[in-house]
Each structure stands twice: as structure tokens, then as C-alpha cells.
Amino acid sequence: MSEPRPVSGFRLPGEGPSALVSTATITLLFALWWLATHLGWIAPLYLPAPEAIMKAFLDANRGEIQGGEPLVNHFGWSLWRVLAAFVAACLTAIPIGIAMGVSRLARGVFDPPIEFYRPLPPLSYLPLIVIWFGIDETAKIILIYLACFAPLAMAARAGVRSVSIEQIHAAYSMGASFLQVVRHVVLPAALPEILTGMRIAVGFGWTTLVAAEMVAATAGLGQMVLNASNFLRTDIVIMGIVVIGVVAYTFDLAMRAAESKLVPWRGKA
Fold first, then answer.
1. Can you tell me the distance from the alpha carbon of 262 to that of 191, in angstroms, rounded to the nearest whole number?
2. What's the pTM?
3. Would you tell me how many other CB atoms lie within 10 Å of the CB of residue 259?
């Protein structure tokens, strides 16, 4: 029987001039934004002009926005909170996810609480975290940590479950112990799913940042956006959103680069 032929003109994701298309899309959106604001289609209260956003960015760099805190301080506090929570989630969620994939006991213990809280929005359990841990940095980091934990654990579990049983049997037949099978067979096979989970988790971390910085924060990008919204400073709000988006996208690009180095075989089959 002959092998099926690929569909004519079909390309795998990642091939073709995707960077050119992305650049054209961003340019078009920016042009529409400029036209809408300069031709008066949208009032500045709802959508300030690009120049106003740039002015807000320069003012924030000089510490001339409300609070007098320079933008670099807001960025530093937010980066610390997200990174601390993300690293803590990686150190705990990945081992737990792997354990859930290889052990029925671990799956029975961890699966119900993770599946229970995973769909909950962070704002729903924010009051409990404040009551239990106070209003200092611990509460903020725990809130972001919980947002990162579930997708990481689920990704690690899914990666383990995708390991071929033939690979495991082959390792055992050559005298490998259980820990050696996990280290040399299960973990490498699950690594692509784990890296995808890390990309999703760090995105959730930045998504939860604004909610975390509602807890008595005096600095942070989310706090800056919330404070500006109280004064109807739409230019600062959009500037803060753009900064958070650019930083989060930079993190995603770094994770993609790490994925291409650590699992170069992915997508090549």
C-alpha cells in the first residue's frame, strides 16, 4: 500500500512569511489607531492618540505621573512578583504533574484540588488569600503562583501520559530502575508539553498581575494601571497595558527560543 501524499500547498505552522504578515498586521492596526484618533472618530477619553501614549511613557520614565514613582520601579516590582511566583510554580508543579502521570496515588491526591480551583478566577479567592496571608508581598506572590501552578501541573501530567509504553518497557528490559525510567525516558518525552505549559503559565502570571497588585501595592505596573483608571487617565492605562504586553511577549519569545534548543525534534516528525 502506498503512503498517503501530502496535500498540495499545505504547510506546517511556522513555515512561510509569517514574520512579514505579523509586521503588516501590526502596521495596519497602528495606522487605523492613528487615523481614528486624528480624524476624531474616537474621543481621546476612550482612545488617546499614539503621541499621547508616548508622552505618558516618557512622563512615567521621569516619575511625573501620579505617585511620583518612575516606570522602572513599577516594572521592577512587577517583574519580581511574576518571576518569584513562576519559579516557585515550576519547582513544585512540574514534579507534582510528573508524579500524577506516573502514580495513581499521586493523581488521586492532587487531581481533585487542582481541578477544583483551576477554573476559578483569581479575584474569587483573592479575599481569602488576603485574610490568610495579609497584604504584604506574600499574598501577591501566592496569588500569581496559584495562577501559574495549575497549567504547569496539567501540562506535566499530559506530557507524562503521552510517553509511549514501548519506550518504558524497553528501558525496563535493559535493567533500568523506576527512577532511571522517569529521568531518562519519561522526563525527556514530557519536556515539550512541560515547556508549553511554562509558556502558558507565565502568561497567566502576567494576566493575574493586576489582580495581585490590587492588594495594597504602592508600586507595580498593575497598580499603576489601576491608579490611572481612577483618574480617567486613559493614556497611562493604555501605556501600562502596552508595557505589560511587550514584557509578556518578550517572555514568550524567550520560552520559544528555549523550546527550540531543548526539544529541537518537536514538529519534525
1. 8
2. 0.80
3. 18
